[in-house]
Amino acid sequence: MEDAPTVAVIGLGPAGLVALKNLREEGFHATGFDRNDHVGGLWQYSEKEQTSVMQTTTVNVSKERSCYTDFPYPDDVPSHPAATQVQQYLTDYSKHFGLEPYMRLNTAIEQITFDDEREKWVVDVKGGGKEYFDKVVVAIGGMVGKASLPVIEGVERFAGPSVHSQAFKRPADYKGKRVMVVGFSNSAADTSTQLVGIADKVYLAHRHGARVFPRRIKGVPIDHTHNLRLATFQSLIITYFPRLGEFLFDKFLKKLQDQSFNIRPEWRFEPASKVPVVSDTLVPCLEDGSITSVAGIKRIVNATEVELQDGTKVDVDAIIWCTGYKSDFSMIEPRFNPECRPQAWLDAPGSNGKSLFRLYKNVFSLEKPDSLAFMATVHITISGFKIFDLTTMAIAQVWAGKSSLPSLPDMKLAVDEHHIRLAETAKRVYNLSPGQCETGDWVAAMDELAGTGVNEYLGYGWKGWLFWLQNRKFCNLLMGGIWSPHIHRVFSTGKRKCWDGAREAIERVNESVANMRKEEKKKSG
After folding, report:
1. What residue numbers bound the domain in which 458 lies?
2. The domain spanning residue 25 has which CATH number?
3. Is the pLDDT of residue 167 over 60?
4. What is the pLDDT of residues 190-223, one digit of tens each?
5. For the whole prediction, is pTM greater than 0.90?
6. Angle 83-86-92 (CA atoms, 0-180°, nearest 5)?
7. Number of domains the chain contains
8. Contact assessment for residue 334 and residue 112, using Cβ atoms and an 8 Å cutoff
9. Is 332 helix (H, G, I), strand (E, B) or coil?
């Protein structure tokens, strides 16, 4: 269609790549921009001081649950791919869907503004002038826009290297040093365990705990325990009894943790934050003493001495801050910057001073919902790749006029109520993500906007009962088997494009997992 709307997709990491594909699939003239010379964003290892995987990074979420909705990983890739395999997967995705002609790599964007007279978005390309678009998807600058460093008394006194984990690239640089890794997250676990056997001493300093899991339990990826039926039940409990829902979910996570590890009180895993840590090696390293768990940092005493919150003083040669990131939407014209800082949220200890997002479902701009959307601003307990795919299917359907958003007053009210809930949660939960949404509610909303049919065919209306009666075995597989991303491409609804291979892929992945379980029983039997 020659007169189809033009869309600028800013960033070609996993979010921007699937945005480009889903928008073009719906008939939009979409163009993707990225400052790097490659697609995949942080999945490409980089020596530069920018967020990227390490050379040794392995995925925490299984490939069976972390692929795009219509593009499985190759069979020869293990359930937990290495970073290089993820990067290859993203490259293959762009080739498979013919996206390369519509990508402009090595192209930095300096500013995005809105021309009220032309009613067009103005994308200021570095060294290339201004270009005009009908719509914009911002797929960078979300929750990992810029490094977040805490304010610590006396930090200027420290003489050794003091860097954010963003700059941690080569463990060998810390050979023979006493290193303090600050934080308790997946990046903190990866960083500290990577230093074992290289650094002379490794301390893991943290103010809060977490539930810690291995990647596999009983020979099967641990995330295979979370199916659609369980997710639906959790969503109902959290909707009507939020405190009880939080308690039961944490109890479920603790049970999984305790099946795998014997957690010692001196490691300070309690109280646990909302985000679990996935690591096969952290607990063994704590057990053998190659990593020492200590209290959080209170202040820096001198060039090498750190005082902890429990009064202990430790000598270290280097500090690596695994303290997360803050959003950065500085390239957006200020009136469209989605960041907001409600006082009730900032007053809650769990906010950590971060900004919230004034976006409907953490995606659609309230100022320009029909032409501006944001990615990487949603934090829920499913794979990022599936989040991005569902988000962009929904964006494409809304902008194509096939699905409708609520009225602007209703969207504003929904955002305000969401922020109130987050502020209440942040009073009792440490380090709450500003992108936190209730998983079941958010996925159901995106399924509805995207027109996937999941809510209808796997729900309790007449379509759901009819589908179950006609396809009992397959319906039970969808609900109780692997919560595969392909579920969102099974049903033909007249909206987003379904995938003819979805059913076969779902059956094949469940068969593969069943074989994994059989093999494990043979080994243990």
Report:
1. 6-145+326-510
2. 3.50.50.60
3. yes
4. 999 999 999 999 999 999 899 999 998 888 898 8
5. yes
6. 145
7. 2
8. no
9. strand
